[in-house]
Amino acid sequence: MRSRGAFRHHPLHRLKVARSQRKRFPWMLFILPLVMWFGFRAVRIYSEKPQAILVLGGSTAALEREKFTAEFAREHPGLPIWISSGSPRDYTKQVFSEAGVDVRRLNLDYQAVDTVTNFTTLVDELKQQGVQSVYLVTSDYHMRRAQIIGEIVLGSRGIHLKPVSVPSEQPQEPLSKALRDGGRAVLWVTTGHTGASWSRLHGGW
Known about the structure:
It is a single chain. By secondary structure, the chain is of the alpha/beta class. The protein folds into 2 domains: 4-44, no CATH class; 49-192, Rossmann fold (3-Layer(aba) Sandwich). Helix content is 56%, strand content 13%. The protein is built from 9 helices and 5 strands, in the order H-H-E-H-E-H-E-H-H-E-H-E-H-H. A 5-stranded parallel beta sheet has the order 3-2-1-4-5, sandwiched between helices. Strand 1, helix 3 and strand 2 form a beta-alpha-beta unit. Helix 7 packs parallel to helix 8 (175-191). It starts with a helix and ends with a helix.
């Protein structure tokens, strides 16, 4: 009886292996460039220095996010700070002023009615300002959803993001909420509509 080792050297076995490798080869030709592209993109995003700070407001955690950002902004002097639907204007300016941050760096916008519109209301203005990468500041429990939306909306304009999470004691948001708003972000990219009115009926933010 032939051993398994001997069978491996049999011509029929070698032919079978060769055919199997040929079948896999086209897939490798497709997958390898894809892997290389994603790797190159990840390295580029990691090495790219953000040109602005984007803070998501619109929730009860807005004040904590702004206080955190005020300290973060001191470590990144010169970067403009965009706050989407944050605390009242005078209060926000007071928070940054007391932290020693020049309030002229602030860009306060109050158009957003939920997390999706945090991005859609500002992305074109960021693009016009020549911003190609931003620090994205929001609460840790909210970051997964914000990242999914941001990658779609900001990415549609060639803007990358680097997440900066604000610590909290809140539990992580359900994945279903992130996927729902991810779908709304895709809807905006393809049609220009965000489904914001539907979101308000279901609690917003």
